[in-house]
């Protein structure tokens, strides 16, 4: 999906402050408000800009403890996975759910009032579910600021330009250690 400089500027600005008016966005971008509005509508039509949301302070909401819970489901059938997914989505403590590959099937991001609440949830509710085979819980010490998302530059895939010509990076030379 091609994005030009104006698209990227508008995306950056709307992510930085989603409460800006179209007139403010247009002034920042140096374009007419009609141009800004049309570009934003185009970004929405193309599915790049999915919507506008508010960021809630979990601590101010009384949910200062965040945790990431890795869950392995057995048996890993579609019916069992879908049933667990549906149950997790009903939980008010859940901030996000990720379906993953590897040794775990789900990664659940939770925000709760305290570690006692988290412990009770894991022991009394999560591990009591028949399909839950294994659970690992990690407390989040700090959530770093979200970054503004923009398209990534294409990766250099020209193996001829890589050191060694075979796509592998060259190792350290003997004189690099002196």
Report on the structure:
With 178 residues, the protein is an alpha+beta fold. Among the domains are: 5-45, Arc Repressor Mutant, subunit A; 65-140, 2-Layer Sandwich (Alpha-Beta Plaits). It contains five helices and four strands. The protein has helices at 5-16, 22-29, 33-45, 78-89, 115-126; strands at residues 65-73, 94-99, 106-112, 132-140. The chain has a four-stranded antiparallel beta sheet with strand order 2-3-1-4. Strand 2 and strand 3 (106-112) form a beta hairpin. The termini are far apart.
The pLDDT mean sits at 89
Q: What is the name of the CATH topology of one domain?
A: Alpha-Beta Plaits
Share of residues in helices:
25-40%
Q: Which term fits the overall shape?
A: elongated
Q: How would you summarize the topology of this molecule?
A:
Blueprint: H1 5-16, H2 22-29, H3 33-45, E1 65-73, H4 78-89, E2 94-99, E3 106-112, H5 115-126, E4 132-140
Antiparallel strand pairs: 1-3, 1-4, 2-3
Helix pairs in contact: 1-2, 1-3, 2-3
